[in-house]
Each structure stands twice: as structure tokens, then as C-alpha cells.
């Protein structure tokens, strides 16, 4: 090797490393899943670049992942012939917090340090998980299109080194793990086979194991999971695939897997998580459904294949109707994308409606997680058809329902009293704060008054009534003067921050309430738009 340069991990990576290594990890097997998933991503990236640069690999060359073991040196090697990494990429990607999963992990960690160990299991920390089983890690890589390779090395103790590899190198990446003394299990053929079939069977590239007699044995089916017939995908396969693309540790709440034939051909394998992804309310409202064209990965976030109000979905859309050599930029304006988006949206909303009807209790969990996101669609969807479909899967609390019960607008309408002309609604962050809202005092207090109480107020003596009325008018005039003076004063104090101040007869216990002018934006909507910087 040439000159060796020693560098330090970013401070935060150092923290993650020690957590990974020193926390008793309950499932060490997953390090192999992480390394294989990186190798598969690297093959995806190469296959995409190959579309516009045919010099990057041989036509017809098989993209593959190969595992080999060296018992004497206690080494486990995972090799791929994907895109590879340049020297800079080795440093940037393996030495700093580049991975989305790790980034989220750290953000969460800031909130609750004690949960650290749990969290590692929940997200997986990508590449760094290799330090759970290895004392020394070497990554040798040669970037597609380049002739020199570089070698990255670290013992997970806070520093890593990078050096140039002398001699011949071939495109791709080799991860060489020197296993800890008590981890030699991972050199065992059956152990490796078991881990690969359990966690990585869905990987769309063949994964080979070089056996002791030197032959290659294929461990996975090598068929991308979404291209299989719906019934041929087991629950555990879905689970593992979902985990690997979402970094979410729990089972998906719902799987939406369809092969669509007709005017537009595409496959969708989409998952609704059972918990909120961390970036759900991030202002950029990023969607993370991956777009493939004929099994070639195109992009994850440059092209919107699903509307933003469905951004809780994770998964894959693969179409054969898009030209392969299309650039990511022109894709966004493609009418095919628009059609796929419309069709997928319909499918997802239909699936949600079926679930809402068939299992309202489970749907409640979904609604609590993602209802606020879905409701954005009521303002955002351009066509009435989508808006109505969204509305049909929306659920609401009603002042007339059992506590905590959610109902649909359809339910509400079907139980409206004859002659009811209006539906009043109130928006709020949660039921409790909505119930505290001064705007509904008038109604909520009405329901508290008993009919027998009302009788006590009815007067039988007409004369008495008249006298009382005269007295009341005089009082009212005096009161009006006071109130007018008060309002003039308040207007002076509040100035431009309000557009008007009015007397309300609706309040029973509160002194004031905020109201929006007629035809103006709803307060919460305005707040939402402001948060989105619109
Ligand atoms: P993530 O996969 O979530 O991005 P990882 O920690 O698993 O995070 O990997 C960090 C980065 O290192 C990857 O994003 C990728 O850029 C790079 N990388 C890791 N393994 C490989 C590989 N086999 N080939 C090319 N790049 C890789
Ligand atoms: Mg990874």
C-alpha cells in the first residue's frame, strides 16, 4: 500500500460507534443485512449511471454480491461489483454521518440518551453495525470509471485511515471484516445462509457464497420482491423488505401490492408504517417511495410519484412505461408519471377506505398517526375526485358521539336530524383542546341546561314582564355605552394586530375568543401554511 493517511471520525460518529459496540445488541445478525443492502444500493446506482454512460461496465455483465470466508484469518468478506467509492467518498460516506438512517438515529438520540440501545435495534445504524462483530474493518473500493482503488481501515476506536491500493483493482467494493474472537460463528456456512435468506432474500441481485471447495452457491432468489406475484410474497419477506427500505423496526400496518395492467403498466409495492416516521412533519414534506423503471432504480426523492399528503408511504413503484434513458429532471414533468401518480393515489385511498370499513379499531391507530397528513390533501388535491376520496377516509370526533369515537362524514350525515341545514366544524390539535375552545361554549352549555331548568325561567305574569323589559332597555343602553368605550380602547391598544373587535353573545365562561373574518382562511390552515413557508 502507498501512503497511509489517518483521520478522525466526526465526533458524533464516534459516539454512535461506541454505543453500537458497547451496548449489548440483541440481534447482531443484522450487520450482514446492512452490508448487503449497501452492496445492493451500489449495484442500483451503477445500473442507473450505465444508462447514460455505457463505458462504466461490460454490456450483459452480471451485477452481484459475493460472500467469502477465511477461517484461518477469521475474516468475512462481502464484495460487490457496483458503483464503488472514490477516495473522497470513502472518507465522506464512511467517516461522517452521511446515512439517512444514522442521521435520524442521532436526532432521536439527542432527545433521549437512555434509549440508545433500543434505538440501534429500531433503525439499524447502517454501515457502523459491522463493529458489533468485527475488531477490524477494511473497505477496499474502486469507483466505476476510475482506475485506482483506495483502502479504508478502522478498528472502530475513533480513527480510520485511507490509503491508495497499489496494483490492479476491479470496480466495486470489498468489505473485509476481521471478526471478534467470540463471533467466529459468522464464518459458518449455515449461519450465513440462514441470515441471508432471513434478511436479504428480497434483494434483486444474486448473493453468492463461496464454499470451501471454491464453488459459488447462490443463497437468495435474486428476484426483486415486488416483481413476484402478490400471493408468493410471505409476511416475513414483506417485513424484512419494509425494514430494509424504511429503517423502521416494527411491522407495516398495511401492504398495498398490485400489478397494474392496462393503459399504464406499473407495479406498486407500498407499505403504510404502523408508527410515524421521524421526518413526517419536516417542512420539506419529502416522499420516500422509490421509483424503478423495469427493475432499474431511478430515484427516491427527485421525482414525486405520490402526492405529498401520502408521504407516510414507503415502498417501490416500478413501471415499464417510462423510457429508461430519461433524466431525473425531465421525469418530473412526464405525463406518464402524472398518470401513475393519479392511479396509485386512487389505489391507496381505496385500500384505506376498505380497511376503515372493515376494521375501524385498527383504522383509528392509522388515523391518529397519519390523519393530519392525509387531511392536507383536502386543500392540496387538484381534482374533486381525489378530494372526495380523501374525505371518505377522513374521520372526525363529534359532540354527539361516545367519547373517543371517530366517525366519517357519511355517518354524520346519515344521523342528522330532519331539517338540519348546517354542519359546524371546529379544528384543533386534539379533542381536548378543541373542547376547551371558547367558540363552542354556546353549544356545549346548551346541552348542559336541563329542560326543567328552562321552565323556571318562563314568566307567566305579563305585567311583570313589561316592567322588567323597560328596566332592561335602560340597562342595555348604559351597557352599550360602556362596551363601546371599552372596544375603542381595545382597538387602540391592539392596533394593527386585529382587524376588528366585536361583542359576542356566544361566550358563557370565557372573556374573549379569537375569530377569523368571514371568507378568511381558517386559523389552523393559516398557521400550517406559515409553517410550510407558503
Ligand atoms: P445508508 O445506506 O443508509 O446511506 P450506510 O451507513 O449503510 O447508510 O452507508 C453509508 C454510505 O456509504 C452509503 O450511503 C454509501 O454512499 C456508502 N457505501 C456503503 N457501502 C457501499 C458499497 N458497498 N458501495 C458503494 N458505496 C457504499
Ligand atoms: Mg445502508
TrEMBL record:
Organism of derivation: Hevea brasiliensis (Para rubber tree)
Gene Ontology molecular-function annotations: ATP binding; ATP hydrolysis activity; ATP-dependent protein folding chaperone; unfolded protein binding
Annotated region (Disordered), positions in chain: 454-477
Biased composition (Basic and acidic residues): 454-464
Domain of life: Eukaryota
Key words, A-Z: ATP-binding, Chaperone, Cytoplasm, Nucleotide-binding, Stress response
Stated name of the protein: Histidine kinase/HSP90-like ATPase domain-containing protein
Gene Ontology, cellular component aspect: cytoplasm
Residues of the Histidine kinase/HSP90-like ATPase domain: 27-183
Organism ancestry: Eukaryota, Viridiplantae, Streptophyta, Embryophyta, Tracheophyta
Cytoplasm listed as a keyword: yes
